[in-house]
């Protein structure tokens, strides 16, 4: 699983994806595919790809709520579950490259 894969998934599903990074911080991949680390001021002392490799839990939060009375649930996924979510996209991408 790569950061680019999660970025594509967040755009496609219109979700914000959260995972923990060092120092008690959290990476948030927005529904526009932008990876942000709120609370980080300046250049990070870590690599987000490496932090993603260490992440074991991911929180998926809908970017848009249907309405105020019926909020969409936040879902927590394990690493294995996220890999399975990404599998169809990875298979499609691999098939596209084989046709070239």
Q: What structural class do helix, strand and pairing data support?
A: alpha+beta
What share of the residues does DSSP label as strand, in percent?
A: 15-25%
Low-pLDDT runs of 5+ residues are: none
Q: How would a crystallographer describe the biggest sheet?
A: 5 strands, antiparallel
Helix content: 25-40%
Tally the beta strands: 5
CA gyration radius, whole angstroms: 15 Å
Question: Major sheet: order of its strands?
Answer: 3-2-1-4-5
Shape: globular
Number of helices: 3
Average of per-residue pLDDT values: 85
SSE succession: HEEEHEEH
User: How many individual domains?
Assistant: 1
Q: N- to C-terminal separation? A: 23 Å
Describe this structure in words.
This protein is α+β, with helices and mostly antiparallel strands. The protein has one domain. The protein is built from three helices and five strands. It has a five-stranded antiparallel sheet. Strand 2 and strand 3 form a beta hairpin. The protein is globular and about 40 Å long.
Brief descriptors of the model:
3 helices, 5 strands, five-stranded antiparallel beta sheet, alpha+beta, 100 residues
Secondary structure elements and pairings:
Layout: H1 3-13, E1 15-20, E2 26-29, E3 35-36, H2 48-54, E4 57-62, E5 75-78, H3 79-98
Antiparallel strand pairs: 1-2, 1-4, 2-3, 4-5
Short recap of the structure:
The protein is of the alpha+beta class and 100 residues long.
């Amino acid at each position: 699983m790569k950061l680019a894969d999660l970025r594509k998934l967040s755009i496609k599903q219109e979700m914000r994806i959260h995972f923990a990074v060092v120092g008690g911080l959290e990476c948030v991949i927005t529904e526009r595919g932008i990876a942000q680390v709120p609370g980080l001021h300046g250049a990070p002392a870590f690599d987000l790809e490496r932090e993603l490799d260490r992440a074991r839990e991911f929180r998926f939060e809908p970017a848009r709520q249907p309405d105020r009375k019926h909020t969409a649930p936040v879902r927590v996924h394990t690493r294995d579950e996220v890999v399975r979510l990404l599998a169809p996209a990875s298979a499609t991408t691999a098939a596209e490259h084989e046709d070239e």
